[in-house]
Specification:
seven-stranded mixed β-sheet; 12 strands
Length: 272
C-alpha cells in the first residue's frame, strides 16, 4: 500500500455519549441491610407479626400467644459485568478523556440494568395490582393513581410516609397537569428526577418501567416497601496477554426483596 494513500483519522475533542435512561428506582429503596450483604450471601430480614390485643376484665388472660414470624430472605443473586478493551493505536491517537468516557458508559449500563431489575421486582411482587387497563386521558390516570393511594392508606400508609409515584413518559404526559409544580428552589429534588408532587408524594418519570408485553407496570410505593443490597462492586484494569491493548473489567452483584408488599401498588396500564 502506498503511503500516499494513507489518510489518518482525525479524532474529535468532543466525545459523544449514549443517551442516559431515566434511572430512578434504586435511590428510593431501603438500604439498611446493605452492610450485611456480599457476593453469594443471603440476608435474613427479621420481621415480627402483631400480637392480639384483648380486653382485660380482671380474670386470667390465659397463656401467652406465639407471635407469627414474618421474616424474609434477601438473596444477592444478580451478577452483571462489563469487559472492554482500548487498542494501543486508539489510545495513542485519543485525547484525554477517552477512558473515563468508556467508564461512564459502563457505569450507566450497569445502573440501567439494576433499575430495570428493581422495576420488574416491584411490578411482579406488589401487594396489589389493578386489572389490565387502557388509560388515554388525564382523568383516567388520576382515577388509577387515586385507587392506588386508597389501597396504601387502607394498609396504614399516611401522608407522613415517603411515597413515590413512578410514571412512564406517556403516563406522565397525561398526568402532568394534575401535579403540584416544584418550587424554583427545589434543585435537590429536580436533580433526583422528581417532576412534581401529588398527594404529598414525589412523582418521577422513567423509561425503565417493567412491561409484560401488554401493560406498563406503573408503581406507587413507600421507601420502605422494597429492600435493595449491593454485594460486590469491583473494577480492574488489566493487559490481555494476546492483544496489544489495555482492558477494563467490572463486576456488580446485588439483590432485592419486597419486604412490605402492602406498601406497594401496581397499575397495569397501556395507552391504547
Amino acid at each position: 500500500m502506498s503511503y500516499a494513500n494513507f489518510k489518518p483519522v482525525i479524532w474529535s475533542k468532543k466525545i459523544e455519549h449514549e443517551l442516559k435512561k431515566f434511572t430512578v428506582f434504586k435511590e428510593d429503596c431501603d438500604f439498611r441491610f446493605e452492610g450485611d450483604a456480599g457476593r453469594g450471601k443471603t440476608v435474613k430480614i427479621l420481621g415480627v407479626g402483631k400480637p392480639t390485643i384483648g380486653t382485660y376484665t380482671g380474670s386470667s388472660i390465659g397463656t401467652p400467644e406465639t407471635v407469627p414470624d414474618s421474616s424474609v430472605y434477601l438473596k444477592i443473586d444478580q451478577a452483571k459485568y462489563f469487559n472492554f478493551q482500548v487498542d494501543d493505536v486508539d489510545k495513542a491517537q485519543a485525547i484525554d478523556g477517552l477512558m473515563p468516557a468508556y467508564m461512564e458508559e459502563a457505569t450507566r449500563g450497569l445502573a440501567e440494568v439494576e433499575d430495570s431489575f428493581i422495576a420488574q421486582q416491584l411490578g411482579q411482587n406488589a401487594g396489589s395490582a389493578s386489572a389490565s387497563t387502557s388509560i388515554t386521558t388525564a382523568d383516567g390516570m388520576k382515577t388509577a393513581i387515586d385507587n392506588a393511594f386508597v389501597y396504601l392508606w387502607n394498609n396504614g400508609v399516611s401522608n407522613k410516609d415517603k411515597v413515590t409515584i413512578y410514571l412512564t413518559p406517556w403516563a406522565y404526559n397525561l398526568f402532568k397537569d394534575k401535579l403540584v409544580a416544584l418550587k424554583t428552589d427545589n434543585d435537590d429534588l429536580i436533580a433526583k428526577g422528581v417532576v412534581g408532587l401529588y398527594n404529598s408524594a414525589k412523582v418521577k418519570m422513567t423509561n425503565n418501567i417493567y412491561n409484560d408485553g401488554t401493560d406498563d407496570y406503573i408503581i406507587v410505593k413507600t421507601s420502605k416497601a422494597y429492600a435493595f443490597c449491593n454485594g460486590i462492586n469491583e473494577t480492574e484494569a488489566y493487559r490481555p496477554e494476546t492483544l496489544f491493548s489495555d482492558a477494563v473489567k467490572g463486576l456488580d452483584t446485588y439483590g432485592g426483596k419486597m419486604v412490605r408488599p402492602k406498601e406497594c401498588y401496581c397499575i397495569k396500564a397501556h395507552n391504547s
